[in-house]
Amino acid sequence: LLAIVILSVFICMIIVYLYYDSIFYHFQNIRWNEEYPVVPGLANIEDRFGFNSNYLLLSALFSLRFLFGEPIFGLQSLLMALMMCWVLINIFRSQYNIRYIILFLFFPVILFLDSYMLSNSNTDIIPLLCSFYFIVKTGLKPTWIIKQPLLACLLPVSLVTFKLSAVILCLMCLIVLANLIKEKKFRPLVFIFTSASLIIILWCIRNIIITGYLVYPIYSIDLFSFDWKMPYGTVMLQKEHVYQWAKIVYDIFYIEKIAVAIQTRKIYLYVITHAFNFVMYIFALITPFVLILFK
């Protein structure tokens, strides 16, 4: 079974899809990271370099270009295979517990919907997989965030440097920190707080060097006036683009479009994909509660 899991992920990995963001700025940003240290004002060349995702830094480190002559984006495939193996091992250890079997059934859906992310550079897939792991583990064993406070705090904080939208998971850190204060465990509290602060501070410093802003594209936090600072208008337009794109992706009224497509028998692949994505969002919300019920 483990061999089948690894083989399925490998097949998804070798089928390369042409992804919009990969072509237009991921590959270029990774190449810059491979060849040069942090470059002041780099985002003036391509404004999306200013997003400064740590995924692109890791991809530069592990692209294996020196072996194959071209980059191999295997980090997300490795993470996907490890997560599937983790679930399988727990299925066997728990004597085929129904909760883990339900959990394992999610992975074929993820492979179907997000296989294009496994074979190409993508800043969404690692935060998505790690968030899925975090939510599911909390649903299965709610006390783990108390027993493993370091992982429970540093994982969400690190994900913020991959994708800013992952900041919502950092709310779980408040539970951990409150428990450490309650139990008067000040040494681990100081260590966790210092480590988390260091991760964010170093990321913000790199943001400042690349864009001139503390967090790009949040132009309202305007603290610096370097000569390489990005133009205000460019940052404002990028923030508006991010906002409008999020409205399209998470618009609940897309259900109406799906219904119209079914009625007119014009069911395109993008309609099916959005329908599956909407279902996955609902599953992500209810999964912890379903797993707790089967506990």
Give a written overview of the molecule.
This protein has 295 residues and is mainly α. It has 15 helices and no strands. Helices cover 69% and strands 0% of the residues.
Layout: helices, strands, pairs:
Elements: H1 2-14, H2 20-35, H3 54-61, H4 65-68, H5 75-93, H6 98-104, H7 106-118, H8 125-140, H9 144-147, H10 149-160, H11 171-182, H12 186-211, H13 232-249, H14 254-263, H15 269-293
Helix pairs in contact: 1-5, 2-3, 5-6, 5-8, 8-10, 8-15, 10-11, 10-12, 14-15
Q: How would you name the oligomeric state of the polypeptide chains in this document? A: single chain
Order of helices and strands: HHHHHHHHHHHHHHH
End-to-end distance: 25 Å
Number of discrete helical segments:
15
Which structural traits does this protein have?
295 residues, mainly alpha, globular
Describe what is shown at a glance:
By secondary structure, this protein is an all-alpha fold. 69% of the residues lie in helices and 0% in strands. The mean pLDDT is 77.
